[in-house]
Amino acid sequence: MTPLADILARRIAMTGPITLADYMNECLLHPDHGYYTTRDPLGRAGDFTTAPEISQMFGEMIGLFLAQVWIDQGRPAPFILAEPGPGRGTLMADILRATRAVPGFSDAARIHLIEASPILRAAQRQRLADHDVEWHETPETLPDAPLFLVANEFFDALPIRQFQRDAGGWRECQIGLANGSLAFGLAAAAPIAALDHRLADTHQGDIVEICPAAGPVIAGIAARIAAHGGIALIVDYGGWGSLGDTFQALRAHHPEDPLANPGLADLTAHVDFRALARAASALRHSTLTPQGVFLERLGITERARQLALRLSGDALDSHIAAHRRLTHPQEMGTLFHVLALWPIGAAEPPGVTP
Ligand code: SAH
Predict the structure, then answer these.
(1) CATH of the domain at 259
(2) Which of 5, 40, 46, 322 has CB atoms 3.0–4.6 Å from 1's, for a disulfide?
């Protein structure tokens, strides 16, 4: 048993079963034993690899995307360049390098990062040592100004609740104890107001998930963009509307039982982009655009060719593999999607399908 499994088992024995959201929150962010609070999980030696860690081209394309939107919106200055869940700071570093040549962009940008993990904050501080950066616990404390925000694999880390439809309403998936060990169970059926709209598109036995933290986060971001201008670009895996059990654990690049090693494995769920778009109803939103299509439209293949000219041997092979991994339909190209949110009346952003 991990130390956190022990803590959770004792808590459940005293006060009863907990929701998946409670479990995820403890596993990811417990001050002493949380997954993100105690380690840098990224890269080959860690548990998972993300697009910015695969190739600099990912951040370069997003940098050019943000710069184009900034120019189309009349070059507001100053503006907030924000990223929730910035990992090692690689995406932000690549954005800043790629946009250096855009007149006025760097001078006008105020960099704000939203990060819960002290260890990753330290990595970001080191990576972005040449820049002034402010850190936040939540997006709520971002300053009121035009907001240009990008989030890659952030929303999938926010805790979810899971429900199964039943004749009498919805039965919530809970974590209780069986023979002293953590075990999944279902609570009694009850009506759930937040799922009333799902009665139209689900059937008995279907599983749906909601992410209670995502709504307020997106609504706050959307209110700032609606009032001051800017854009939010959300990149993640998931779909349009949630259906089915997507709660998963990843450790050392392999899936495992999410209850097996609390605090030692990354826990995620698919992002429901429709729920994000609904929470941002003050803005226009794109349709869900596959990451591969988005990056191709922004010119990743041309950039890949340029970079390839300076490479040979193993470096060239891994560069070609990285391009393929980011864009190919059988790799991250269609597994990951992009949702853009921008002010009503502003120009349509590049790359996404409106
Ligand atoms: N965007 C990065 C890292 C993705 S991992 C990349 O693409 O490489 C998820 C990130 O979100 C980590 O930085 C993690 O510490 C952060 N995070 C997770 N839950 C959070 C929360 N509730 N508040 C703030 N940051 C959180």
Answers:
(1) 3.40.50.12710
(2) 5
